[in-house]
């Protein structure tokens, strides 16, 4: 299974990706996580350091693919999860999607791309240009991380549109939403009522997860020292179990921007929230 994880910038995709990778590994899967962000910190909590990127390695070898070995670009992280960072072009130059394509090309050259049961693409922010939608070309499922707020759901709706477009030419489905750092889910539920899709899990704001990221470790690793954290691990194991069941998924149809504004603003009006002022 190949899975692309998208969502609004700063919503917690990398933290969820790393813990989900461990959850899959705990279920006996051979896992590769590919960071698709130029700042190359997706796999930091798995390896405890910023691993060299694909693009850096290719440049160092003068783009001679035949001179690159798997150990040059694939690093072993916690619980046996393999880690790759695609990297990216300099700021304001080049296309990140091109780098993702080169990463997949190199992994295929190394006969590594098809060696894994699970490949997770952890994708930069809510960018849905053709370049950063590139991981969807190689994925069976897309998973969108959101919270219960306007901005994250607006970004999710744009990503939904990208999934729908890619599904025209690829065997791609939206696995669903994962709510993150949210105590309530009323706005999420209202959105999926009008734009039907599964909600796989909703994680509350858990300080231990934030602390684990600061410490450069997954919550699973910290749970080895504190059994009380196993309850938090169960959130990620639940997501992994649902995905391992090979869900049917959906080809979603996004809401038009004005429809989405109208739908979400009703919540802010009802609660007199100042968030409505952004409209």
Task: Report on the architecture of this protein.
This protein is an alpha/beta fold and 279 residues long. It has a single domain, classed as P-loop containing nucleotide triphosphate hydrolases (Rossmann fold, 3-Layer(aba) Sandwich), CATH 3.40.50.300. Helices cover 40% and strands 15% of the residues. It contains eleven helices and eight strands. It has helices spanning 13-26, 44-47, 54-60, 70-73, 96-109, 150-166, 186-194, 207-214, 219-223, 230-244, 257-271, and strands at residues 2-7, 31-36, 75-76, 82-85, 118-123, 141-146, 173-179, 199-202. Helix 1 (13-26) crosses helix 10 (230-244). Mean pLDDT is 90; it is low at 273-279.
> What is the mean pLDDT?
90
Strand order of the largest sheet: 3-4-2-5-1-6-7-8
By CATH, the architecture is named 3-Layer(aba) Sandwich
Give a short account of the largest sheet.
8 strands, mixed
Number of helices: 11
Report the end-to-end length measured between terminal Cα atoms.
39 Å
Beta-strand content bin: 5-15%
Structural class by sheet pairing and helices: alpha/beta
As a whole number of angstroms, the C-alpha radius of gyration is 19 Å
CATH superfamily: P-loop containing nucleotide triphosphate hydrolases
Morphology call = globular
